[in-house]
Design goal:
Elements: E1 2-8, E2 11-16, E3 28-36, H1 39-46, E4 55-56, E5 60-68, E6 80-83, H2 93-96, E7 134-136, H3 139-142, E8 144-145, H4 152-155, H5 161-169, E9 180-184, H6 189-201, E10 206-210, H7 214-222, E11 226-228, E12 239-244, H8 249-257, E13 259-267, H9 280-285, E14 289-292, H10 297-309, E15 321-324, H11 328-331, E16 339-342
Parallel strand pairs: 9-10, 9-12, 10-11, 12-13, 13-14, 15-16
Antiparallel strand pairs: 1-2, 1-4, 3-5, 3-7, 3-16, 5-6, 6-8
Helix pairs in contact: 5-6, 5-10
The structure holds zinc ion (2 copies).
């Protein structure tokens, strides 16, 4: 079968690799129909010492089930399914509490599309999403069935970035009567724009979007945000919900200072490559909550998929490049916030 492989900085190639097979009764095989470029893929494509090439690439996809093991009950051959980027078992203590990112049945942070020797010591025998076949070790626990009438290109980023954006704003949309949202955007390009779209689609009237990239600012404005640019200030107003996708320590600090009393700030990204100074005293005095870390993809995906199936969300409004599956090696190198590839 063919598998898109990152072979070095800025270089992706299609490799012929052995066909994947079911290796246990709980497993399924999925043939991806559409795949997305995660914001973090951009960093890995550029070449990063923590992610030495070569490795099978991609961890956002939706596809058709082609085989299931004898113990699989909920998923059937032919289903259209969203594949979460993380591996999770569904039965360990963490999974039972919907903390699928903390699954203890596999190497911590096990996921698709990563080097076997990289960050977190991840053991990644799982291959990448840009393959003719993806092995799902716990089909019933991991896969979410989607309405087959939907366009797979709409669903590709549910695996990671779109669901990540949802957790930043979705749970709070109806908690505060005076909700306004601030997004301090940047390196996680698509998550920031998805967060704008989700907030506006859920009825948030004021969504302020700070960025230094003029194209993303225009895109955010088209999605209904109030675009803010210039040098990053210490604070940008006062909002019950703030989001940091900038990758900058000062971006996180600005988002935290701009969080209103009792509000929540979510940082979807490691800032400054390590630990960050945060305005803890101000946070304490204002009862501000900071959330960060990996999303629990298997747990979040059904909630976001429901919003797409009901027509509340149109994730394609964030896509900047929609290319043919066969052109993924070139398309994934393109600039722009969100690249999606789709089979004919
Ligand atoms: Zn990702
Ligand atoms: Zn588990």
């Amino acid at each position: 079968m063919r598998q898109l492989t990152l072979v070095g900085p800025g270089k992706l190639e299609w490799w012929d690799v052995p066909e994947r097979r079911l290796e246990g009764p709980e497993e399924a095989l999925v043939r991806p129909l559409a795949a997305g470029r995660c914001d973090f893929d951009v960093t890995m494509i550029q070449g990063h010492p923590l992610f030495p090439a070569p490795f099978a690439f991609g961890h956002e996809c939706v596809g058709e089930v082609t085989a299931v093991g004898e113990a699989v009950r909920r998923i059937q051959v032919g289903d259209l399914v969203v594949v979460p980027f993380q591996i999770s078992c569904g039965t360990c203590a963490a999974c039972r509490m919907q903390i699928s990112a903390g699954c203890t049945a596999h190497t911590p942070k096990a996921l698709y599309g990563h080097t076997t020797r990289g960050l977190f010591g991840v053991d990644a025998p799982w291959g990448g999403a840009l393959s003719d076949s993806v092995r799902i070790p716990h089909a019933d626990a991991m896969l979410t069935r989607a309405d087959p009438r939907l366009d797979p290109a709409q669903l590709a980023s549910l695996s990671d970035n779109l669901s990540d954006a949802w957790r930043c704003v979705g749970p709070y949309a109806h908690r505060y009567s005076d909700l306004s949202v601030l997004i301090v955007a940047g390196r996680s390009a698509s998550i920031g724009l998805y967060a704008v779209h989700i907030a506006r689609a859920l009825g948030v009237a004021q969504v302020d979007y700070f960025d230094t990239d003029s194209k993303r600012l225009d895109h955010a404005a088209a999605l209904g945000a109030n675009p803010l640019s210039g040098p990053l200030p210490e604070r940008l107003g006062s909002h019950r919900v703030t989001v940091n996708t900038s990758g900058l320590q000062e971006g996180l600090a600005c988002a935290l200072r701009s969080t209103a009393p009792g509000g929540v700030c979510t940082s979807t990204i490691v800032v400054g490559g390590g630990d960050a100074a945060i305005p803890l005293q101000e946070m304490y005095l204002k009862n501000v909550t900071l959330k960060t870390g990996f999303i629990n993809a298997a747990s979040e995906i059904p909630v976001v998929l429901d919003l797409i199936e009901r027509g509340v969300l149109q994730p394609e409004r964030v896509t900047t490049t929609l290319a043919a599956w066969e052109d993924a090696a070139e398309a994934f190198l393109e600039e722009g916030s969100k690249v999606i590839v789709k089979r004919a």
